């Protein structure tokens, strides 16, 4: 790993833009979606107003997080174009887009590669058993569709973030198999930069009636994931879903090294506000962990980006690289983000 030296934990200063909350899937644990046609799409001018306010705030990542329009819907092309245009807009303002908009066609991914420094899609769980329960009405959650997406990302050399949703009815063996599937794909393409381990955390909107994933089990899952995943994949946990400071530290002790995008709102888990940077620092520092900002693309993937994207990334590396890390790099030739 590059930036993640032994006492360093990273996060991405991020802001989430939601093109639309409408989604044709109905995952029973969802706290994000609205019915198709009931969520007006964000306009480019509204997005521009928001994004312009972010300039000079050291927010580098723009997470474009969208509900899904059915691949055969007459609205699909316009939906895709809106996402593409939002990425272009963010780039034109010097911000770095990372899109997560559900499964895309190979051609859609190929196009979005031109305007994203990285992309993402949660694999969640690879067991088809969940298609009879939480994913009964969610065609996008067919495991093969999502595994295919991860493979295409590899073929297209798109730096990619994926992850597991924990506590939605899977068994421990299902988890290990999901991690092994990610691991196998990474060994073929070397394109997975992070794996998120996201504990199910009930929200106000969902119909899935199940307790939250026990955060006390998370360190054990992380330790096992660390054994299964190749060492160049960073394990990410969302600190707002762990809550207890001691358990957050326990997760880090066993191998989690990234806290994901930190911004004003967690759109996927709106009932769990993000813990902001200073509060995180106050938890981590006394235990000897340094919290550092990172970009949405890890440095080992810069060569995969177009020249234009590389230029935008270089600007941010200068801004977000702390002096202490620069000095460390000089003495160890350590690549930094
Ligand atoms: S979890 Fe994602 S795919 Fe499932 S209903 Fe919600 S927005 Fe749609």
From TrEMBL:
Cofactor entry: [4Fe-4S] cluster
InterPro entries: Aldolase_TIM, CofG_family, Elp3/MiaA/NifB-like_rSAM, F420, rSAM, rSAM_sf
Enzyme class: lyase
Pathway annotation from the record: Cofactor biosynthesis; coenzyme F0 biosynthesis
SMART domains for the chain: Elp3
EC number: 4.3.1.32
Molecular function as annotated in GO: 4 iron, 4 sulfur cluster binding; 7,8-didemethyl-8-hydroxy-5-deazariboflavin synthase activity; iron ion binding; transferase activity, transferring alkyl or aryl (other than methyl) groups
Pfam families associated with the record: Radical_SAM (PF04055)
Domain (Radical SAM core) ranges: 9-240
Family statement drawn from the similarity comment of this UniProt entry: Belongs to the radical SAM superfamily. CofG family.
Oligomeric form and interacting partners: The FO synthase complex consists of two subunits, CofG and CofH.
Protein name, per record: 7,8-didemethyl-8-hydroxy-5-deazariboflavin synthase
Taxonomic source organism: Nostoc minutum NIES-26
Gene name of the record: cofG
């Amino acid at each position: 790993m590059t930036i993640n030296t032994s006492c360093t934990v990273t996060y991405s200063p991020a802001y989430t833009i939601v093109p639309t909350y409408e989604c044709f899937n109905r995952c029973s644990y969802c706290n994000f979606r609205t019915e198709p046609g009931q969520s007006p799409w964000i306009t480019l001018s509204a997005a521009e107003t928001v994004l312009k306010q972010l300039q000079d705030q050291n927010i580098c990542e723009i997470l474009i997080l969208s509900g899904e329009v059915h691949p055969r819907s007459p609205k699909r092309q316009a939906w895709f174009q809106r996402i593409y245009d939002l990425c272009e807009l963010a780039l034109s303002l010097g911000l770095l887009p990372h899109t997560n908009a559900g499964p895309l066609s190979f051609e859609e991914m190929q196009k979005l590669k031109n305007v994203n420094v990285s992309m993402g899609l949660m694999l969640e769980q690879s067991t088809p058993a969940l298609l009879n329960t939480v994913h009964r009405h969610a065609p996008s959650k067919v495991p093969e569709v999502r595994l295919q997406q991860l493979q295409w990302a590899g073929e297209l050399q798109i730096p990619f973030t994926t992850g597991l949703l924990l506590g939605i009815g899977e068994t421990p063996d299902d988890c290990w198999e999901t991690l092994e599937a990610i691991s196998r794909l990474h060994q073929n393409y070397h394109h997975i930069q992070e794996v998120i381990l996201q504990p199910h955390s009930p929200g106000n909107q969902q119909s899935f009636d199940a307790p939250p994933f026990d955060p006390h089990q998370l360190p054990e899952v992380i330790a096992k994931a660390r054994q299964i995943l190749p060492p160049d994949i960073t394990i990410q946990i969302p600190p707002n879903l762990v809550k207890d400071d001691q358990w957050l530290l326990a997760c880090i002790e066993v191998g989690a090294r990234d806290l994901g995008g930190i911004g004003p709102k967690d759109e996927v888990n709106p009932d769990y506000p993000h813990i902001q940077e200073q509060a995180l620092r106050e938890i981590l520092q006394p235990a000897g962990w340094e919290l550092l900002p990172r970009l949405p693309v890890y440095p080992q993937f810069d060569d995969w980006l177009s020249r234009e994207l590389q230029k935008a990334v270089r600007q941010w590396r200068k801004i977000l690289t702390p002096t202490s890390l620069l000095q460390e790099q000089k003495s160890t030739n350590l690549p930094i983000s």
